[in-house]
Fold each of these.
Amino acid sequence: MADTTVFDRGEARPTLPLVDPFARAITYLRVSVTDRCDLRCVYCMAEDMHFLPKRDLLTLEELDRLCSVFIRRGVRKLRITGGEPLVRRDIMRLFGSLSRHLDSGALEELTLTTNGTQLARHARDLAACGIRRINVSLDTLSPATFRTLTRWGDLDKVLAGIDAAQEAGLAVKINAVALKGVNENEIPALMEWAHGRGMDLTLIEVMPLGEIEPARVDQFLPLSLVKARLTERYTLDELDYRTGGPARYVRVRETGGRLGFITPMTHNFCESCNRVRLTCTGTLYMCLGQEDAADLRAPLRASMSDGPVEEAIERAIARKPRGHDFVIDRRRRQPAVGRHMSVTGG
Ligand code: SAM
């Protein structure tokens, strides 16, 4: 068999791909570049969140260096997230520098997840950095519901951001968390709107991440139920289409558009997990739903050589768990993990 080991410039270490104990290759890295956000979605954050002091954050150069190590070790898809990634100062510099990995072919896709509030300003620059597809999180088209759900957000800003993104040639996918009693009756309208604009819609089940005021059980809406209700009005044809994430897609015959379902609660998809998550402080989480983590900031700062950080990454991947174990019920008031989605990066 041919030896596929390659050696990176200037590094004596073989750049073997990262494979976890369950033979899953780690090809997808999500990077939360800030824990701050300009919205406070009620299912995501508590109202009085305490944010990290700026000195704890990795610099943009350090984030670039860490991402580049992962890319050298086989990561092909990089998603920038947060918090809200577009509120991090000078964030376009990071997109600009990471785009060299697209040019070289080392990276297949550089993308981001955003709430869209700052997109109108940044859409063209994102496209110029080689970004082709973005995810915009939007749970409702009602200005009043949007304001309540985000605690103060302005829906028009997000809609203007989506317009700008499409004008800049970016493919937009809408992600909506399905919430009992909040947007459950609006899902068909959200879907028809998204499909009418040529955008996929992906629905997500709410996960028990971090302490929030409302009880999760009051928010949780199983997508099995949503799908069953949609089937009464629409014809859903199962698709093989995958975007490298956990969504399972159908084609809606009546609209012609694609609808995705992310079901961490009702159908666990961990067996095909190819991803790890890096926070803005350089903490690597091997699973969204587990507490175990590895500090990459110390080895990164300890040496100009990437050797120590690569070793820390290898040790972390060797501990990647088989999967998460989320439960939402009345008896269990504690979240599955203490950290909010805004810390780990959605
Ligand atoms: N600010 C960006 C955004 O709004 O897309 C990126 C970060 S946000 C944490 C990423 C995604 O996580 C959003 O789609 C949000 O709706 C989702 N999210 C946050 N908390 C969640 C939870 N507890 N369960 C499921 N999805 C959640």
Amino acid sequence: MKIALIKGDGIGSEVINQGVKVLDAVSERFKCSFEYEEVLLGGRAIDETGVPLPTETVDICKKSDAVLLGAVGGPKWDGLAGNQRPEAGLLGIRKALDVFANLRPAMLFPQLKSASSLKEEILADGLDIMVVRELTGGAYFGEKKRVKIENGIKAWDMMSYTSYEIERITRIAFSIARKRKNKITIVDKANVLESSRLWREVTGEVSKNYTDVEVAYMYVDNAAMQLVRNPGQFDVILTENLFGDILSDEASMLTGSLGMLPSASIGAYKTGIFEPIHGSAPDLAGKDMANPLAAILSCGMMLKYGFDMENEASAIFEAVNSVLDNGYRTVDIMQPGMTAVGTEKMGSLVAENVQA
Ligand code: IPM
Ligand code: MG
């Protein structure tokens, strides 16, 4: 399998290096082989080539079987115009590979219950939510503009969706619900937004083909509240791009740390993008402090969703589980009585565990 590596900015390279370490352990144990090719995107691409998404990067990613991505962005590039920022590179590669379905599982490792921002009694039923976020539409990609007006400036980002875009992500969300607890909550703002009303119509039509799946609709403000009030009620959450961005960060904190959550972005072609949901955390960069588990678990998602390598994916998941069982913690999930380890060490522990 050919994997394009986008290490990116900030802690990106540190966490991706640990992911590669773990993948190498997988290939050793299961006798498969992964080939890596590093490409530039984001801040580093701006520094070295002048643009956030060089054409060469797009070409190589398209020819690869998967893209493994760290994180992009940082204060250094904050002053740039919107379409020249590191984030524009990230959005560009998502669009170029047409990865419209972003799967963000928020699950609680029982060992980390006390690291959650919620009281333990609220987590009594555990927490296992799959946020399915639409990734290539909505306000992120709609018309953006600024114009001068009489008394100042006006700016807009158009949140638009076509029925086709809604339909294809809805089918994916329903088929995922079928492999889980058969429940889907569709989150929108249909009391205000026309695009949300279209989401309701289209998802309602699609749901007729999945009568075995229980469907609920929820406004996004209520969903934000219900996630901290009673997260156990959710199985699959399906939502548009911007709402999904926000709710998935919220959901991640319920699991203890943003540093734990992986994601998979899949779409029409074979090449998916696999990345931790956390950002580049520039303040932690180069300090061996970042939690590499989200990146490592993203490698697990790559094996599962990208390569259909279920056993290999489980091996990663189980290795993370036993490293946590053995009491190792990075600083973001540190608890009394546990053993604090840095980024490198955490990666090595998981890799050793995969091989054991
Ligand atoms: C994410 C990130 C990105 C997004 C940023 C970095 C553009 O927050 O993957 O959730 O908003 O999609
Ligand atoms: Mg985000």
